[in-house]
Write a sequence for this structure.
C-alpha cells in the first residue's frame, strides 16, 4: 500500500480483515502515527521501495501530487509485471476549495503513471468513491457502479475479483476500457466534490441507469 | 432557442408539443434545412439576435465553441434580465475522439457566458444527458438526476418548473449551487462519452444513490 493516509489505511484495514498481508509504504517508512495505526491492524510499515519489494499487488493511495515520486522511488525490479491499483486523484487544493486538477483534459494521472512505468499493469479504479464506500459498498443502498480502466484485461479481472471480496457485486463493476479512460474518471472528481456538498454525505455514489 | 442542431430541435419540438411558441435562432436565420424542420413543428426560424428579441426564455443549444459568439450577436436589450438555459458543452473534437474540453478545470462555459453577460441569469442544466433524455426522462428507467446550477435562485426555480413539465420529477432535480458549479457538470462530459461507449446507448443517466 503506497500511502498511509485515510484512503491507504481504509484499504489496508479491509485487506487485513480479509486475511491479506499488508505493508504500508510511506516516504520515511517510520512515521510514528502510521506505525501505531499499523500495529493496531497487524500491518507492517516500510518505505515505498521496501513495501513494493515483496508485494504481490500494489495500491497507489498517495496524494495525486506525490504519486509519481512515490512510485519512482521503488526499484524497477520491485514493480516489474505487477498490477498497480491506482486509487489517487490529481486534486490541486493550492487555490483553495473547490480543488482543480493538476493533470487534466488531454492527460491523466493514471496515464502518466502507466507511461512512466510500462513495467506496471495499471488499473485505475476506486477513485470515484469515498474511502468508506470503497471497502463497504453497502453504505450506499441499492445498485451503484465502480469503474475500472487499464490496458491489461487480466489485471482488470484480478482487481475486479478483489473488489468482489470487498462486497462489490460483479454486475456493478463497469470496465470503461484502456488507461486513457482515466481522464473520464478523474475529471468526474470536480462533480463528486460538488455532489458531496449537495447531498451532505460522502456515502454516495452514481448508479448508471440505462434504457 | 439558440442553435438549430439536434439538441435545439429536440428541445424546440418538446416546447412546441407543450404549446410554447418557439423561435429557432441560427447564424444566418435562413438555413433551408432548419426552415423545413421548423415548419414541421410550427416553430419560426430567425437569426440569433431576432430569436432572442421576443423571447421570454432563452436556451443556448449551440455548439460550445460557438456559444459566446452566438450570444454576443444578440442586442444587450434582448438579453437584459432574461433567463438563459445553458445546455452546451465546450467539447473539442479537433484532436478526434474522445473529445477534450476547450474550457476546463478553473473555468467553464457556463461561467464564461455569465461573466460576459451579467445581464443574463444563466442556469446550467440538461448538459449531462442526451437530447432524447432531456425531453423524455422516462427513456431511462427508475430515478436518475438532472443537475442545475446558477447564481439566481428564481431562475433555477423557473427552469426546474419547466423541466417538471418535461417529465422530470422534482425530487430528481439537484441544485448544485452557483454558476461556478458548471465546472463540475461540464467536466463530467469526458466520463459521459466513455459511459456511452460502455453501455451502448445514449439513453442512460446517473442516479445519485446515497447512504
Amino acid at each position: 500500500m503506497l500511502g498511509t493516509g485515510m484512503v491507504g489505511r481504509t484499504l489496508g484495514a479491509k485487506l487485513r480483515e480479509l486475511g491479506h498481508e499488508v505493508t504500508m509504504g510511506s516516504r520515511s517508512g517510520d512515521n510514528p502515527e502510521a506505525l501505531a495505526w499499523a500495529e493496531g491492524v497487524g500491518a507492517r510499515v516500510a518505505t515505498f521501495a521496501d513495501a513494493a519489494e515483496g508485494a504481490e499487488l500494489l495500491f497507489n493511495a498517495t496524494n495525486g501530487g506525490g504519486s509519481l515520486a512515490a512510485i519512482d522511488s521503488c526499484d524497477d525490479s520491485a514493480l516489474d509485471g505487477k498490477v498497480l491499483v491506482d486509487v489517487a486523484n490529481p486534486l490541486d487544493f493550492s487555490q483553495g476549495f473547490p480543488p482543480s486538477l493538476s493533470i487534466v483534459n488531454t492527460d491523466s494521472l493514471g496515464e502518466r503513471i502507466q507511461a512512466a512505468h510500462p513495467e506496471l499493469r495499471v488499473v485505475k479504479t476506486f477513485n470515484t468513491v469515498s474511502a468508506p464506500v470503497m471497502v463497504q459498498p453497502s453504505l450506499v443502498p441499492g445498485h451503484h457502479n465502480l469503474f475500472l480502466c487499464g490496458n491489461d484485461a487480466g489485471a482488470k479481472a484480478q482487481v475486479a475479483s478483489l473488489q468482489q471480496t470487498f462486497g462489490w457485486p460483479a454486475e456493478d463493476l463497469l470496465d470503461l476500457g484502456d488507461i486513457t479512460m482515466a481522464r473520464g474518471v478523474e475529471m468526474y472528481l470536480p462533480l463528486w466534490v460538488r455532489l458531496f456538498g449537495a447531498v451532505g454525505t460522502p456515502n454516495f455514489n452514481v448508479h448508471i441507469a440505462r434504457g
